[in-house]
TrEMBL record:
This is Putative 4-hydroxy-4-methyl-2-oxoglutarate aldolase. The keyword Nucleotide-binding does not apply. Mg(2+) binds at D101. InterPro entries: RraA/RraA-like, RraA/RraA-like_sf. It comes from Phytohabitans flavus. It is an enzyme of class 4 (lyase). Belongs to the class II aldolase/RraA-like family.
């Protein structure tokens, strides 16, 4: 699975030929954050983080929490939950919602991707769902789907796709490496991609 991260979200996404990218508002909260692993989907009522506490207990080591927090500007997650999650072997967090304590999260090197950074906290009252299918943007996320998240964004793959997507992604990377070499030798992308045939434009 680590090879998916080495190839990177953009290459794997293109190779997958699927609509598997989560909304672009989900951004890493510290430079260099990246994670790959099976998803544990979670949904919360807006401004309620009880399901996240439940998820930290429920998670299997290596799982990535993928949370529908309705993009609400609340600090659903911070240093305390990060330390708790690391103690349980949780691999990372992707949340459509806010997080806080981000300097500490960066120092702890826990990969977090969120739609905002937010100071106000949450209530703990609605149990929400843990382990049930959620939808973020146009993408359904089920437990065990493979999450790949890096500086470019977050994609979610059905595990059954991996056997075909991996070779396609490797091939794409090899082609790009060849193109880069030709560009360094002085060729133009207009020629490499055959773009002259599309006309000169205005
Ligand atoms: O307290 C909370 O609910 C969120 C938070 O800041 C932490 O986990 O440190
Ligand atoms: Mg805190």
């Amino acid at each position: 699975m680590n090879e998916l991260l080495t190839l990177g979200t953009a290459t794997v996404y293109e190779a997958s030929k699927r609509d598997c990218v989560l909304p672009h508002r989900l951004r890493p909260v510290w430079a260099g954050a990246a994670v790959v692993g099976p998803a544990l989907p979670v949904s919360t009522a807006a401004g309620d983080n009880l399901p996240l506490h439940r998820a930290v207990e429920e998670a299997m080591p290596g799982e990535v929490l993928v949370v529908d927090g309705q993009d609400a500007p609340h600090g659903y997650w911070g240093e305390v939950l990060t330390v708790a999650a690391q103690r349980r072997g949780v691999a990372g967090l992707v949340i459509d919602g806010g997080v806080r304590d981000i300097e500490r999260i960066g120092e702890l090197r826990f990969p977090v991707f969120s739609s905002s950074v937010a100071v106000p906290g949450t209530v703990k009252s609605d149990p929400g769902t843990v382990g049930e299918r959620i939808t973020l943007g146009r993408v359904a996320v089920r437990r065990g789907d493979i999450v790949v998240a890096d500086a470019d964004g977050v994609i979610v793959l059905d595990p059954q796709w991996i056997d075909s997507v991996l070779p396609a992604a490797r091939a794409r990377q090899a082609t790009e490496a060849d193109h880069l070499e030709r560009i360094r030798r002085g060729e133009l992308t207009m020629d490499i991609y055959g773009l002259r045939a599309l006309g000169k434009g205005r």
